[in-house]
Amino acid sequence: MKAAAILPSRNEPSTIADVSAAVDTALGARRAVIVHADSSDTPETAERFAAVSTHAHKIGLTGLVRGKGAQVLAAARCSGPAEAAAVLIVDTDTRNPKAAVYRALLESVRDGAALAIADYPRHWDEANLTNHVARPLIAATTGNDVPQPLAGDLAVSHEALVTAVRALRTLPAELSECVDGYGIDAFLLLTAATCGPVVSIRLDEPKQHAGSFPHLPAIYHQAVPVLLHLTAAWRPSPLPMPPSSALYRVAARELESARLEEMLSTLDGLIPTALRRYDERSWPLPVANAWHAVNSTASPFDAARQLWPHYLLRVRDWLTRGREATTGQRREALAVAHARLHTAVLTDAGVLG
User: Fold this and answer.
1) What is the three-state SS of the chain?
2) Predicted pLDDT at 351
3) 10 Å Cβ neighbour count for 235?
4) pTM > 0.90
5) pLDDT given at position 153
6) Can you tell me the mean pLDDT for 129-147?
7) Phi-psi region of 29 (alpha: psi -120 to 50; beta: other; left: phi over 0)
8) Of 93, 119, 191, 279, which is most buried by a Cβ count within 10 Å?
9) pLDDT confidence of residue 215
10) Beta bridge partners of 35
11) Is 3-221 CATH 3.90.550.10?
């Protein structure tokens, strides 16, 4: 089965070589193709990729428009990924790349999955969009409880990639721009889920990579409209979900006081002054409100903007309270919110007026 890999990057000269080597080992075939899709500020990342010796054929795309999705889609149009039965897409800022992980993703697609995605534990202060919005919303609306739906390491089948490219053509221009950015992960997963099973590959250790908190506004405003638009097309299952069924693996670590204060200060600068009161009992009903609004033909961008301050307050509260909580308490809080969103999506319980 012919395979290919796509490596989107921007300014990652220190990690691109190790990631490329691990991907090459995972592909394990001379007929395979690795496409490096680069939008770096300097040529160093592309030069280090070019210097890596691989069995697979290498294609280097440089000077691309910035945006993870735009880079992935540019690479997907190359002959290797376009013709491959399985396409691996990986983050190039990973500091502990493992060929075995990439190989397992490819093998799951070879075994019939439309998409296989990494499931690694996340440190409690990370993955806020995943834990508070993306995972519970996707689970409630599609029935696919994917622990790390926005993970950057995944493999897709030929059919899933074709389906995604076809679906992209039907998106409004503004949503296409989101998919060209951080909306690509949710877009690939949700389009793949329409044509086959989605499989998670469970890993035991947290991934070591650059933190996403500095990009919080961009990630939110590009990913959430895509999430709301695509999940609104699904009809949720009426089956009840017990609160204990959602297992959140939250890795513990000490968050330094200076780092926490910096994060809280950043959030305070984003939250409108008039909306700085947070009622923890209401979460995640604002997410359900946003989904119900889009399901009733509201703009996903308007719904995302309405949700934005509630999300920021949720993250602030999570960081403040979470620092003193135990790992078990953090897991339970996420599982309870997961179950509440499931109920609110299935009913009008999320509509607050």
Assistant:
1) CCEEEEEEECCCCCCHHHHHHHHHHHHCCCCCEEEEEECCCCCHHHHHHHHCCCCCEEEEECCCCCCHHHHHHHHHCCHHHHHCCEEEECCCCCCCCCHHHHHHHHHHHHCCCCEEEEECCEECCCCHHHHHHHHHHHHHHHCCCCCCCCCCCEEEEHHHHHHHHHHHHHCCHHHHHHHCCCCHHHHHHHHHCCCCCEEEEECCCCCCCCCCHHHHHHHHHHHHHHHHHHHCCCCCCCCCCCHHHCCCCEECCCCCHHHHHHHHHHHHHHCCHHHCCCCCCCCCHHHHHHHHHHHCCCCHHHHHHHHHHHHHHHHHHHHHHHCCCCHHHHHHHHHHHHHHHHHHHHCCCCCCC
2) 44
3) 10
4) yes
5) 97
6) 95
7) beta
8) 191
9) 87
10) 6, 59
11) yes
Choose among 280, 350, 349, 353: nearest CA to 313.
280
Whether the CB-CB separation of 289 and 269 falls below 8 Å is answered with: no
Residue appearing with tokens 């009903």:
285
C-alpha 52/C-alpha 16 separation (Å) is 9
* Maximal CA-CA distance, the chain: 60
| Amino acid at site 123 | H
Q: Write down the domain spans for the chain.
A: 3-221, 243-346
**Band (352; pLDDT cuts 50, 70, 90):** very low
**Tokens 């899709």, residue located:** 37
d(CA 285, CA 293): 12
Q: Which amino acid is at 165?
A: V
In whole numbers, what is the pLDDT of the chain averaged over residues? 92
Name the token pair of 328.
Answer: 């078990």
Token pair of 263 as six digits: 């994060």
